[in-house]
Design a protein that fits this description.
Layout lengths: L2 E12 L2 E12 L3 E5 L6 H8 L7 E6 L12 E4 L11 H9 L8 H7 L15 H13 L5 E5 L7 H16 L3 E5 L3 H7 L2 E6 L2 E6 L1 H8 L4 E5 L14 E3 L3 E5 L6 H10 L6 E5 L3 H32 L1
Parallel strand pairs: 3-7, 3-8, 5-6, 6-7
Antiparallel strand pairs: 1-2, 1-4, 8-9, 10-12, 10-13, 11-12
Helix pairs in contact: 2-3, 2-4, 3-4, 7-9
Length: 315
Amino acid sequence: MEAVVEADDVRKTYGETIALSGASLSVESGEVFGLIGPNGAGKTTLVRALTGTTDPDDGTVRVLGESPTTVDRHRLGVLPQAFSPPDRLSARELLAYYAGLYDEARDPDAVLADVGLADAGDTWYENLSGGQKRRVCVGATLINDPDVCFLDEPTTGIDPAGRRTIWELIEDLAAGGTTVVLTTHDMAEAERLADRVGLLADGSLVAQGTPGALVREHGGSSRLTVETSADPSALEDLAFPVDACDGALVVRDVDPAEIGAVVDVLDDRGVAYTGLTWAEPDLEDVYLALADDAERARTDRIGTAAGLAKAGETA
């Protein structure tokens, strides 16, 4: 299948700051691609390059087979992180204004209903809550029924119920064939919505794949957390690895069927505990592992460069 969104070895610097150091991705029609990564990793810069609002220093970017600066803007929907429409227009008037920018657009009231604001159409934008404002901005992005959507942290500031409404909306868009590229710091959001996820760290995509594949490869083992003040030596000959962590013992590689055996050992040895929690690895574990690795590598590079510079000064 032909890619709808492509980035090949994209690089971008701002002065001495390297925002992108060779980022590459490919997104197919109807796919939801989630970009995750630490603050400053380059997510917004990559989205700006993909939407033609910033020019890469090197590399190529194509959307719908064209440069993002020449593609038909009626086919795109773009939600930036910072979006500040006029305060003294109602939610309905704002959507009607953006609808008027296109030859064909959706009915503003239908879009208000889609983003869960059917009862707030007459409220001035300045009087909406932060989460409601963000939902209006999402609606403005979808008013032209785009073929490709770029959503930069679409649910920031939205309450859990509203977030679920936006999630369902994005799922419906993808089911209808819309291609979606979104950035998020919410790992549950990425895990639910994204067909594939790319983790951007230090300006490059260090891992890409389905959430399940990334968890299997990088997420680590399952863990049974035993809330106890006991020392790990109390379970030193257990058949599973045991670590101390924040006032608890973490027993790793335990299947649900084996929890009872661990409990029997705790009881037999008189180890007092106040709670047990079993968890499988998830996308947050992947994020923490890969982002931490990238941060350590970046720190090492900076330290090496500083050491070389100092050596040069004293030579």
